[in-house]
Write a structure and sequence with these properties.
Structural class: mainly alpha
Order of helices and strands: HEEH
Low-confidence stretches: none
Number of domains: 1
Radius of gyration: 14 Å
Number of helices: 2
Oligomer: single chain
Strand content: 5-15%
Mean pLDDT: 79
Distance between the termini: 37 Å
Helix content: 25-40%
Length: 64
C-alpha cells in the first residue's frame, strides 16, 4: 500500500536513480518505525515516507 502511494506521489525521480541504462540503478530502502498507534497509522507512515524521499539527495557518481 505504501509503495503504491509513494510511486503515485512522484516523490522519487526514478530516472535519476539510473546509473547505466538497463543495467544498474540505485536501490532505496525505507524503514518506518511506528512508536505509537493512536489511529491514522497508514496516513502518518505515508506522509513520513514521502517527506523522507523528497528530502533524500544522492551524490552523482561516475561509472568507471
Amino acid at each position: 500500500m505504501i509503495e503504491k502511494i509513494i510511486r503515485r506521489s512522484e516523490a522519487v525521480d526514478r530516472e535519476a536513480l539510473c546509473i547505466l541504462a538497463g543495467q544498474q540503478i540505485w536501490a532505496l530502502r525505507l524503514t518506518i518505525h511506528v512508536l505509537s498507534d493512536e489511529g491514522n497509522m497508514l496516513d502518518c507512515a505515508c506522509l513520513a515516507a514521502v517527506a523522507a524521499l523528497r528530502h533524500f539527495r544522492h551524490d552523482q557518481s561516475n561509472q568507471v
